[in-house]
């Protein structure tokens, strides 16, 4: 039973990795749509909610089957619960990508991101995508070195997010209130996406080691934020 | 066993209701701190994260015990998973209240909400608190009439959120970019708080009826958004 359980848990990891790939594709295309005011691409990303929802439902069913058929206890049980939260993180990442695509669609044919602040947003997008690529790798390989290496990039995201706010709040900001409001919300979407990618890696670390990286026994089982 | 399971599930509901009360208190005090630029009260709300985290950990432990000791299957199993997501919603509501308190602290001693837009924010706060009060009642009583009645208020929140954006984006907006950016994010916190309160009531409805209100078999088991 223990072996069957491990195999099923590994399947769940592969499923999660594929879902993470879909979320990454959604965020990559949403960012391209945003930067190029590409309405067709934005619509395509918005339509990905169906696929993400199906993948979530399917992962959920797998987790429930694992619970029902194997009746895991103790650490195995906590692992399945952690897996359910990983799925929640992944779906939220997809939803945040869709929010980015919706912002591109809402302002079309205008560009949402003015040239002077575009480099910051391009970097935020790039860091977000790199983090979700890493999260997928961690889900596939359970390589904890990769998971540990994500913290520095998460700090970089926070730093970029701060730079973005400083630019919007600066007296030299010349694009008015509506643009600033759009960008503040967009910045939050990228930052939250990165947070969820990091949370996925932390939860996998917990699955592998049975220990919380932060030393707090509850942190890594905590719900998605 | 079935009876023991029902009792434990009811305990989990009571625990959730108490956690919902704490989230409501946090949001009520955060809103007061925001409207009155009350730094002491803001700090007090920010300090509530410890209590919310403890309540979450304890609810999580109860749900895990239920899974481990009762090994529920089929609908009972899905119910426990739904309960775990209810806890996630409740913790997120607390975190959003803390975000509101942090905005008040960040701008202290200045007031974040200008007089002309204050009535919209007061109504958003009032609707948010009413919804979380209802969610706590639903957790305690499993009264589906109350749960059903929450949709109209949720629509009202969306409407207020739209009015807020219209005010910020209007050419007559005279408070500049930084204020608008703060308010756009604050508006999002209230709206998300309401979304989670409604999600809690929907998940309880699912627990009671075994059916999704929306007719979609996956919606109510979906992770917090």
Automatic annotation (TrEMBL), chains A, B:
InterPro entries, alphabetized: PhoU, PhoU-like_sf, PhoU_dom
A UniProt-annotated Pfam family: PhoU
UniProtKB keywords: Cytoplasm, Phosphate transport, Transport
PhoU domain span: 18-103, 122-204
Main location: cytoplasm
SUPFAM superfamilies attached to this UniProt entry: PhoU-like (SSF109755)
Compartment(s): Cytoplasm
Secretion signal span: none
BP terms from Gene Ontology: intracellular phosphate ion homeostasis; negative regulation of phosphate metabolic process; phosphate ion transport
GO CC annotation: cytoplasm
Main function: Plays a role in the regulation of phosphate uptake.
Subunit relationships: Homodimer.
Family designation: Belongs to the PhoU family.
UniProt protein name: Phosphate-specific transport system accessory protein PhoU
